[in-house]
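stage 2 :: seqdesign
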């Protein structure tokens, strides 16, 4: 996978850090890699860090929703961390909701939530 995203095992969760704008090919790669890692590592959760994203459009919102959906189907809870206020407002303005994902203030908060489940 190029520099758009990385996947790291942190405790019993996979941390997906999206670094830059993504395109369709890179997202398909990310989805495939994430689904394999969830099954391989048998994790309880997936934490998607979007703190590096300045702008979130409908494509990125859809990507986050798809990653959360894949995680749920593979029995892993999904948390989105690092959402800036402007990003949250943009998602609401676009009518985008993430029903398969929860939000957390930070990686520590998401890990704490996963531990308590």
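stage 2 :: out
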């Amino acid at each position: 996978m190029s520099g758009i995203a990385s996947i790291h095992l942190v405790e019993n969760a996979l941390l997906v850090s999206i670094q830059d704008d993504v395109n369709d090919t890179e997202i398909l790669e990310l989805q495939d890699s994430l689904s394999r890692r969830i099954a391989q590592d048998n994790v309880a959760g997936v934490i998607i860090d979007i703190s590096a994203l300045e702008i979130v459009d409908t494509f990125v919102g859809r990507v986050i929703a798809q990653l959360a959906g894949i995680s749920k189907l593979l029995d892993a809870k999904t948390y989105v961390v690092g959402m800036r206020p402007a990003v949250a407002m943009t998602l609401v303005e676009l009518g985008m909701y993430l029903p398969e994902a929860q939000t957390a203030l930070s990686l520590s908060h998401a890990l704490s939530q996963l531990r308590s489940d």
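stage 3 :: structure notes
- DSSP finds four helices and five strands in the chain.
- The chain has a mean pLDDT of 89.
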